[in-house]
Amino acid sequence: MLFMIQLPDLNQLLDECRFGATRSSGSGGQNVNKVSTKVILLFDVFASKALNEDQKEVFLSSLSSRISKAGIFRISSGRERTQLANRKLIIEKFVSLVTKAFATEEDRIATTPTAGSKRERIARKKVHAVKKINRQRWDGIDDD
Prior knowledge:
The chain is α+β, with helices and mostly antiparallel strands. 42% of the residues lie in helices and 12% in strands. A three-stranded antiparallel sheet has the order 1-2-3, covered by helices on one side. The chain is elongated and about 80 Å long.
């Protein structure tokens, strides 16, 4: 039996996030050494008031590789040259990860192959059989 767990309010989750900035590696030249452009998003899963217990369980199980033992979910981005651009990237990434974590797969409805797809499959099999026959070694003597 599959339980449907509702997606939490993303605005509430973002309100509970803490953002920090550090020096970034990568593009920017000498600017990298003096300006803190890398942005880090921290979200405390255990202390969250926006998530109920079932949602916390889903969050912890599906995003476990990004969550520390203390229950802190962490994402960082230093790709862009400005703090604002990195913050936008990190928020987009957070939203996409959370929506993927709470997405449920729809049950597949079994269908029968169409007549056209059956003909195509048989035709492919015949072409493959001819190809294999042509690969066989021929010694010049007929079996008749």
